Automatic annotation (TrEMBL):
Recorded coiled-coil stretches: none
SUPFAM superfamilies referenced in this protein's UniProt entry, alphabetically: 2Fe-2S ferredoxin-like, Ferredoxin reductase-like, C-terminal NADP-linked domain, Riboflavin synthase domain-like
Name listed for the protein in its UniProt record: Ferredoxin--NADP reductase
Source domain of life: Bacteria
Organism: Nocardia acididurans
Domain 2Fe-2S ferredoxin-type: 263-352
InterPro entries listed in its UniProt record: 2Fe-2S_ferredoxin-like_sf (IPR036010), 2Fe-2S_ferredoxin-type (IPR001041), Beta-grasp_dom_sf (IPR012675), Cbr1-like_FAD-bd_dom (IPR008333), FAD-bd_FR_type (IPR017927), Flavoprot_Pyr_Nucl_cyt_Rdtase (IPR001709), FNR_nucleotide-bd (IPR039261), MRET (IPR050415)
Keywords of the record: 2Fe-2S, FAD, Flavoprotein, Iron, Iron-sulfur, Metal-binding, Oxidoreductase
Pfam families (alphabetical): FAD_binding_6 (PF00970), Fer2 (PF00111), NAD_binding_1 (PF00175)
All residue ranges annotated as the FAD-binding FR-type domain in the record: 2-108
Cofactor section: FAD
Length: 352
């Protein structure tokens, strides 16, 4: 079953002079496919005269707990072809080619206290987490939001409304460069000290993220305790590879004999089981795509967590891992885009 869909834009909302929100209409037959968690993103296909298309990931700013339709928010970036094209061309009724929701910038426990850091358009996944924590959890939420000036604050009115609705649970601090200069580690540490035992979620440009981490280090909050969403350009266009799984490749009739160069993998995917040869030097995702299987993925660089699967039996190893935490690794999760076989027979499952 393909994970690429054409979705209609229901509404385009101007958030600031440089940012718009796209509210999507999801057809009833795709409702389950577009169920998402707060903090996840959608990957959009943007037409390009030079390359045919480019793929860009945009965080969902809506919350499945309190918003009716999935929404992404896009801010123009200097020299950013895709963001300018979206802001200039998409209107209500436009059709957009989209991958299903993905990403692992998602809290596991909504009853925790949260401290959230965002800068600029980094607010998009953060406000999804913020709204969800207030709607479903019992803890407190503190938001530190950095922007150039007041006119560039995305969701300014929405944040004000949320503070009025949850005055005892929500704290919002706007740090404006026009008034206070850029955030500093000392300023971050001073602000965060009352919240140093909260769960930390961070999204923003690399310079801002580094400043936040240095500031939290003054409070002895280790970097491994900080959940960070990173925006990066995709080196691979996932829309060029996503094709429906071919029925003729779904099963292998002849027994597969493991060898020094090839292992065997049994894969549970979309309710079907496939048994395939797995060359020991090829990553699992590459093997699945080569056999016409529509395995989920976006970045192919270990960062987004979209291709996560569970190793049910056998041994594997990952070349890189930027997405999974220790607890997930202990549960046998792995990233298909970085996984090689270590034993002759391996059983993995995407159906979790």
């Amino acid at each position: 079953m393909t994970r690429v869909h054409q979705i209609k834009v229901r509404e385009v909302v101007s958030e600031t002079a440089e940012a718009v929100s796209l509210i999507f209409d999801i057809p009833s037959d795709l409702t389950r496919r577009f169920q998402y968690s707060p903090g996840q993103f959608l990957t959009l296909q943007i037409p390009s005269d030079r390359t045919g298309s480019v793929a860009r990931c945009y965080s969902l700013s809506s919350s499945p707990h309190c918003d009716d339709r999935p929404t992404v928010t896009v801010k123009r970036t200097p020299g950013g072809y895709a963001s300018h094209w979206i802001c200039d061309n998409l209107t209500p009724g436009s059709l957009v080619t989209v991958l299903e929701p993905a990403g692992n910038f998602v809290p596991r426990n909504w009853n925790r206290d949260f401290v959230l850091f965002a800068a600029g358009s980094g607010i998009t996944p953060v406000i999804s987490i913020l709204k969800s924590a207030l709607a479903t959890g019992r803890g407190k939420v503190a938001l530190f939001y950095a922007n150039r000036d007041r006119d560039s604050i995305i969701f300014a009115r929405r944040l004000q409304d949320l503070f009025r609705a949850y005055p005892r649970r929500l704290t919002v601090t706007h740090w404006l460069e026009s008034e206070r200069g850029l955030p500093t580690p000392r300023g971050i540490a001073g602000w965060a000290k009352p919240h140093r035992h909260h769960d930390v979620y961070l999204c923003g440009p690399q310079g801002f993220a580094t400043t936040v981490k240095h500031g939290l280090a003054h409070l002895r909050i280790p970097e491994r305790a900080i959940h960070q969403e990173e925006y990066r350009s995709l080196t691979d266009n996932p829309f060029e590879h996503h094709t429906p799984a071919l029925a003729v490749l779904a099963t292998v009739a002849e027994p597969i004999q493991p060898s020094l160069t090839t292992a065997t993998v049994t894969v549970d995917l979309d309710g079907e089981t496939h048994r395939l040869p797995w060359p020991r030097t090829e990553k699992l995702l590459d093997v699945l795509l080569a056999h016409g299987l529509d395995a989920p993925y976006v970045c192919r660089e270990s960062a987004c967590g979209t291709c996560v699967c569970a190793v049910k039996s056998g041994r594997t190893r990952m070349l890189m891992n930027e997405a999974l935490i220790d607890e997930e690794l202990s549960q046998g999760l792995t990233l298909a885009c970085q996984t090689l076989p270590e034993s002759d027979d391996v059983h993995v499952s995407f159906d979790q």
